[in-house]
Write a structure and sequence with these properties.
Its cofactor is pantetheine 4'-phosphate. The structure is a single chain. The protein has about 1000 residues and is α/β, with parallel strands linked by helices. The chain folds into 6 domains: about 130 residues, no CATH class; about 300 residues, ANL, N-terminal domain (Rossmann fold, 3-Layer(aba) Sandwich), CATH 3.40.50.12780; about 80 residues, Luciferase, Domain 3 (Luciferase, domain 3), CATH 2.30.38; about 90 residues, ANL, C-terminal domain (GMP Synthetase, Chain A, domain 3, 2-Layer Sandwich); about 70 residues, ACP-like (Non-ribosomal Peptide Synthetase Peptidyl Carrier Protein, Chain A, Orthogonal Bundle); about 190 residues, 3-Layer(aba) Sandwich (Rossmann fold). Helices cover about 35% and strands about 20% of the residues. It is built from 29 helices and 38 strands. Helix 18 runs antiparallel to helix 19 and helix 25 packs antiparallel against helix 27. The longest helix has 20 residues. The chain is globular and about 115 Å long.
Amino acid sequence: MNTLPARIEIRPDLPFTRWAGEFQRRQAERREWQCLPLSAVRGCVPSSSRRLFDTIITMENYPHGVPDEHAWWLTFERTVENNGFPLTLSVGVAPSLAVEYRYDPAVLEGSEVGLLAERFATAVEHVARRPGAALGAFEPPSRAPARQDGRYVDRGRATLHGLVEARCDRAPEAVAVQTRHGVTTYRDLDVRANRIAHRLRRQGVSPRSAVGIHLPRGADLVVAILGVLKAGCAYVPLDPRYPRARLNAMVARSGLVAVVTHSELGEDSRAWSSGDAHRECLMVDDPALGEEEDSRPRLAVDPLDLAYTVFTSGSTGAPKGVAVPHRGVVNHVLGVGEMLALVPEDVVSALTSVSFDPSVREIFSALAHGARVAMIGDEESRVPSLLARCLHDARVTVVPAIVPSLLERLVEHLGGDDAVRALVTCGESLRVSLAARTASRLGCRVASMYGPTESSLAASLAWHTDTDGGADGAILPLGQPLPNYAVHLLDELLRPVPQGAVGQIHVGGPGVSRGYHRQPRETAAAFLPCALGGSAGGRMYATGDFARQLDDSTLMFIGRRDNQIKVNGVRLDLAEVDAAMLGVPGVRAAAAVVTGDRRKRIAAFVVLDEGADVEMVRRAVRHQLPPALVPDRVVGVGALPRLPNGKLDRRTLGSMVPAEQALVESRPPVSPEEVSVAALWCEVLGTGPATVDDDFFALGGDSLQLAAVWNRLRTDFGADLSLNAMMHVATVRDQARRCAHPPVPSAAGADVARMVPIRLTARQRADERIVAFHDGTGSLSHFAALTSKTRGDLPWYGMTVTGMLPSGTALADLLGRYTEIIRRSGGQTLSLIGYSMGGVIAAGVADRLTAGGGTLRRLVLIDAVPPRPADLPERLLRRAALESLARADSAEEIARRLREAELPADAIALSSSSLRRLLHQRTVLNEAMISAASIDEPAPGYAGRAVLIVAGKPGSPRVVEIETAWRARYPALEVRTIDSTHHGMFQADTIHQLTELVDTALTGP
């Protein structure tokens, strides 16, 4: 006797007798091979495939006397035995039908097996009564159907913008939106949006039209969304970070009649406005908008009108637009506000791309309840350390949308001094362990939200509790439906499954969206009439997700029915990735798979024509797909694996992903920049050494890890590139070049000065801020390290040099330019701080600001030496040293002369090109000091609090000399010392002492 694998196909339309007869015939044919050992059968199956079977059925049909009345009895016994399979059924037919279930408790719960036994007994009874009935007519056990209903709440005829207008009427001067650039009140938000609505209508844009919004995350984005809604239109988000090909496809499918954008992005929008399909183009920064009416447009918008269309990944290989009416999204944001207990005092984070619907929850759950939206920048939202700083500085109280994969890396940067009281994850299942860790570190409530875009953002929410537990990797359940939502678990015939059984999730209620824009066939397949419960007479959406309702009514997610998956919280269909690769010339076949457990990645496999290479494919898809859909690895293969039926074997494909994939033969890193970048990759990726031509994604990196590398390259190496540009600078060689390549010197008179944020807080447009000045090389890197450790809630800004200073720049010119920039940035009370030459600049700017009537509270000078006529010989010697150093060739000669030029010894780690840029800035600034016999002092000079922090021991000649020079200018000068050197003040062993002195200097009167 041997075990025969059996492939069983259930056809609901076949009568049981016919189906059973065909199955028995096939089994009889297979008996010809039953002598073949099972181990031999397994050897014919790819090792990556599923096991041949996970359930064994044994039939014991021994001769026994037949009962007189030919009756059947059902008996059930529970036994405990060891077995290598999750489930074993032993069936005996004489003297009566008896079924014995043996199961692995690590895989199945007793309640699940009990339900299975109940369903089997019901099926046997059904067959005994109606053997000719179709399989689909079998009735499930008479248990309560698996479903959940949210409580009913009447939302009236509210619209999305109407909710915001109501809050504006209540508190017009309350802050609605806060960004790193400032704040916008509800009144300003309302007026600016009204102007956009009037302009759109005046341009001929009719109600119920689709209007694109092509803007980065910020106050302008919120204004534009409200303006489009007030015009009676639906907005279509167009993320500027998306590749042009992707945006073009979205524009073509959505039927836009207009695009709202910014003048800096106008080139893209003007391209969409040309050609046969003319589209109006409105710039949010157009000064002429101020001439439009401030009043609200008199236009009736119905709750069933569309609010927005957002595009998701499509199974056909093209994005599909989900059309969401006001009714559904209003119900959602009000329901979320009730569950999160939002109040006007809350600060709600907004860190999701506008192209994803959680951004709607972030913005409008806050505005609908009179709270403040804290808009986190695109780049900050993807770097955990920067995001943590933004959440802290903005005093965010509610995070309504964050992906668990990002939270996993963010939580280590959060702490109990943050203001967050509630945090909600979405996009992926939330592990209980991560929820517990987050709740512990922040002291806040943590929840997981479930629901597809088609259900107007989400349908249910589950709070983490101390009683949540389970094995390692246990996830939170799907939770309870939001108000007015219904969740049904249905079988393939759309019948409710009993509690404990697995069914597909169908979402009903007013949150169900209208469907897929201009895709009637796909809409009809997924949006179905509903005759169940409170959703009767309406529509329900078939999610494609499977779940089981446990005895305590908890819904547990089981899996998907198709190739649609989520990576870093972004829903995508692998067919769209396949289609993008197949569109690349030279690609004969292509397929993508998702690998990894907790950290999912996309791996792509391509069969290439001669002359094509995987790097070409990688570059092409990056210009077609959004960042979330770009494969982390592209691997060339001779052929794609197939199943016996000819279908693609994605499971085998997943096993072919190499642990590390070196794309081409390459040399190891050589230059200091290459060595540093490669070491950084090893640190972030946890891999072995990389060659200069290795691709970051080919080594297993993902977008979040790339953001971490970008942040380090920017802060540690001064790399001048955006996070979006990093997607196309993915090799060690290219990233090292960005660290090493010097900018072209600016033309005479060109503006190379800029004030940039160093550390932002919620008070950035309130009473006070701190402005730091660059050192003698034009760098602010010292303050980046310092502000990561300082206390206080004041924002820090820095004055820096973004290009290369023209030769002959005078100190007075720099002081005048910096003073003008600060004056134009706002009228807050200021504290100025500078290190080395930056202290000299800070003092000069303080004098000019005071002369111009500015309010200056403190001046902090860190080891700054004022220019004096007596120093002229020394600076002339330094000039000669710099000129000599610029001509040096060998590393030994450079190292010897660094000290003569008073440059840090670790500059030896720079490449020759980076070093020459450093020397150029140092030379120009040194010349500026030579040209200034003394600081140009407009009368009256600064007479406020001045603090000098000097490197050296108290009373040493150096300390006394520097103190004397500054005290002549500031008689009430406060002096502090650090036993260190000029360059050693910011080293690890002294920076904490420096931080304490700076904190003390920046507090008090």
